[in-house]
Amino acid sequence: MHFLFFWRYTTIKPTNQKDLPINEEIQAAEVRVIGPANEQLGVMKIDDARSYAYNNGVDLVLIVPNATPPVCRAIDYGKFCFERDKREKEAKKKQVIVKVKEVQLSCRIEQHDFDTRVNHAKRFLSEGNKVKAVVRFKGREMSHMELGREVIAKFEEACREAGVAEKKPVLEGRFMSIILSPVKPDKK
Fold first, then answer.
1. Are 133 and 152 within 8 A, CB to CB?
2. Boundary-marking domain end, from 91, 111, 137
3. CA 41/CA 168 separation, integer angstroms
4. In Å, what is the CA distance from 80 to each residue of 14, 37, 42, 83, 186?
5. 25 phi and psi, to 5 degrees?
6. Could you tell me if 114 and 41 lie in one domain?
7. What is the C-alpha separation between 68 and 78, in angstroms, rounded?
8. How far apart (Å, rounded) are the C-alpha atoms in residues 185 and 60?
9. Percent of all residues in the chain with a pLDDT value above 90, rounded to a whole number
10. 84 & 146 share domain
11. pLDDT tens across 155-165, in order?
């Protein structure tokens, strides 16, 4: 009994969407090369660019594949990936995530409950979140939309110093809602 084995040789490289073609993976005939210290080396044939990179002990990384000719950089690939990931992590830290908090109101809400909802909304707005105030119409309240508009107008007025309405109240089925955004503090 004879067994036949096939062995396939490939370079081991983590599969990642952000990975760029390096060294032998670059298919272009000519490339514009940037050196390790960000100096312009000009347009070269791909073999000359690879030999330049190998002689300097770095990798040839395809940075801008859509340019004419494509732009490659001679740099250590591990260092390049580390710096790129570090920049992305810093950019992610600086992002501000805004949450939308919802406050439920009704047409027949009592004053104390209304004040409690206003205080919650002011706290949410001071934390930098948006507030969605929703008035729910039950049963025959649908025929008295003006009551809901009055409650929302009163709520908007009560939150005036903490937040500003993005647009007019919107009716969606049995719900009327408005979104308040936090007021930006004046820089003095």
1. yes
2. 91
3. 58
4. 15, 12, 21, 5, 41
5. -80, -15
6. no
7. 26
8. 49
9. 23
10. no
11. 999 988 888 88
Same domain, 153 and 172: yes
Full domain range(s) for residue 130: 100-182
Which residue type does 52 have? Answer: Y
Residue 40 to residue 188: CA distance in whole angstroms: 45
Q: Quick one: average pLDDT of 31-54?
A: 88
Residue 141 DSSP symbol: G
Q: Which two tokens stand for residue 184?
A: 């930006």
Cα torsion through 165, 169, 172, 176, rounded to 10: 100
pTM: 0.52
Helix ranges (H only) for 95-144 are: 111-126
User: In this structure, how many other beta carbons lie within 10 angstroms of the beta carbon of residue 62?
Assistant: 19
Cβ atoms 134, 175 nearer than 8 A: yes
State how far the Cα of 53 lies from the Cα of 31, in Å rounded to an integer.
13
85 shares a domain with 121: no
Beta partners for residue 117, in sequence order: none
Average pLDDT of 2-21?
A: 56
Let me know how long the chain is: 188
